[in-house]
Amino acid sequence: MDGDLTWRIVLADDHSMIRTGLRALLEADPRCLVVGECGDLAKVAGTVVESAPDLVVLDIALGRESGLDAVPALLGLPHPPRILVLTMHDDPGFAREALSRGAHGYLLKDAAAGELIRAIEIVMAGEVYLQPQLGAQLLRHTEARKDGLSERERDVLRLLARGHTNAEIAHELFISLRTVEAHRAALRARLGAHHRSELVDAARRFGLLG
């Protein structure tokens, strides 16, 4: 790597202590310069516009909102940053959704410090990084899924069958209420299920209530 290379980085995480720790960890590498921080979804785009970073290290959980909702806006900027999702959520469905929305990397917070730097190197080289253990899980889920439902539809169906409200599902999965309603409508149409009992039966058939 070029010894003069500097990556300008914005940290988006709702825990100030985590941001402080990340800043210290990253700035121990001379290539990393943290130029901005924010702790809630409403401030992400503004912080990025103001700081003009090369990379945003983005948590999924920003309070009660999903950091993934910021990804399309960030990618739509005149000079879009690279986006590395750094999160505690080890469900491969979250990784799939992050990458499908345009994130360039997905890494768990329990990864070693060296793996974070390696992920940044890969993302800043123009490639996509997915933590290896999650890549293996995604492959297994893709091979095993024979019901025609997406990973997110399976998540919504499982929670619906367990009696959760739309609002509770939105909070649990870090997606908007409108997205839950859209998934619910799609499930009813695809499964021919017009009553909750029929959704429960479908979830049981697909092994989601085990």
Automatic annotation (TrEMBL):
One of its GO terms (molecular function) is DNA binding. The keyword DNA-binding applies. Residues 142-207 form the HTH luxR-type domain. Residues 8-124 form the Response regulatory domain. The modification 4-aspartylphosphate is found at residue 59. Pfam families: GerE, Response_reg. GO terms for biological process: phosphorelay signal transduction system; regulation of DNA-templated transcription. Keywords: DNA-binding, Phosphoprotein, Transcription, Transcription regulation. Gene3D superfamilies: 3.40.50.2300. This is Response regulator transcription factor. The lineage of its organism: Bacteria, Bacillati, Actinomycetota, Actinomycetes, Kineosporiales.
